[in-house]
Amino acid sequence: MELLEIKDLGKRFGGLQALSEINLSVMKNTVHAIIGPNGAGKSTLLNCIVGKLMPSSGSVMFDGYSLLGRSAHEINQLGISRVFQTPEVFGDLNVLENMLIPCLAKRDGAFRLHALKSIDDEKQLREKAEDVLEDMGLIDKRHMKAASMSRGDKRRLEIAMCLAQDPKLLLLDEPTAGMARADTNNTIDLLKRIKQERDITIAIIEHDMHVVFSLADHITVLAQGTPLVSDTPDNIKGHPKVKEAYLGETQQV
Ligand SMILES: Nc1ncnc2c1ncn2[C@@H]1O[C@H](COP(=O)(O)OP(=O)(O)O)[C@@H](O)[C@H]1O
Ligand SMILES: [Mg+2]
Asked: Which of 13, 34, 52, 54 most suits a substitution to test ligand 1, by most atoms within 8 Å of the C-beta?
């Protein structure tokens, strides 16, 4: 069953057609990887999904709702949480305080939208945040300022901040970029576990093919703003169109 369905999506920046004719379905409870060379339009696509950018054409449906014209906050309320390409934690706040922000956004947003969920009190929010930190192996660092964490731990915190919202769809933009190999492998294990233990769908933009082939059930290759191929990892491996997309880059597929 499709959780996210993108049809004929296009995005122009002035004279630049950054995305065109994007047709893509992300199936429920799968990991869908979006790969492609730098400048292919991967982050722009993600920004169009989460309401950071308004597409120039096309439609985006999520779980029965159209996402077009909705604010980033509303889209988050519908069950999409995302980790952007550049870490977005508040360095001067500690780990637990950072965790409370998405918990509050979820609660107060739910209040504003008159959702049926009951309103938690602060203690419940803290308990929720601590549960997720425990699960993510960050509980001992809850009083640490986020600025003093390693890049790997910051990423882990960002993922924890998303999971605290119990999203239906988790979007990750290059979660392992700039990470040491050990941290990358930890992130792979973590995402595998999240997928196994939660009712969640993950769409991941990723450059590291080791990560892609360790996690993905389905891979879409973008080049120059349009999907070249969308298929299973086995069929993507060695696909001539994939090699063509990366011509001039060192990336091996
Ligand atoms: N806000 C913007 N304004 C103008 N051009 C942009 C903007 N964001 C991205 N682009 C351009 O759109 C293209 C796709 O960029 P991006 O989505 O960041 O690629 P990727 O994430 O695949 O590396 C690039 O040519 C980039 O320069
Ligand atoms: Mg990008």
From this structure: 13
pLDDT of residue 112: 45
What pLDDT, in 10s, does the model give residues 69-88? Answer: 999 989 999 999 998 877 67
Q: Is residue 62 part of a domain?
A: yes
The closest ligand to the CA of 47 turns out to be 1
Structure tokens at 135: 């699960």
Q: Which residues line ligand 1 (CB under 6 A)?
A: 13, 16, 18, 36, 38-44
Q: What is the CATH number of the domain that holds 130?
A: 3.40.50.300
Total structural domains in the chain?
1
State the closest ligand 1 atom to the C-alpha of 37, by its place in the atom list counted from 1: 22
User: Among all chains, which residue has been given the structure tokens 């191929």?
Assistant: 229
Task: Report yes or no: 74 and 80 within 8 Å, Cβ to Cβ.
Answer: no
With a pLDDT cut of 70, the percent of the chain lying above it is 92
Q: What is the DSSP string of 148-173?
A: GS-HHHHHHHHHHHHHTT--SEEEEE
Q: Is residue 250 part of a domain?
A: no
pTM reported for the whole predicted model: 0.90
Residue 176 lies inside a defined structural domain of this protein: yes
